[in-house]
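dumping this here before i forget
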Amino acid sequence: MAEVVVPPEIRRFLLACIPSVPHLEALLLAHAQPRAWSVGEIAARLYVDEKTAAQLVRDLQEAGLLASSGGGVRFVADEARTQLIDALAAFYSRNVVAVSNLIHSAMERKAHRFADAFRLRKGGS
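structure:
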């Protein structure tokens, strides 16, 4: 089976803005149903606890992808971003493994860089 290639614009967005699959799922939820979402609703839909959902929301707000609205949060939509997230949602629905692997590989690279930096500071090789 041929390896799935993530389109460049989706790849750039994921690597720059989405640190984990739950972050992606929260973003896609808010994008798919454009209304104010409470942390509790996000937690229930993603099968995570409210503390985790609150952190996901904070991270996505810091990235400018969600904004406070009516006691909850909603997707921050502009035409270009909406088109990108539409494309991402469609691609992800057909290529869950490829997108998940890309996100996980980015997390792994960051962990290795952190470990390498720690070893260098400690005088290791």
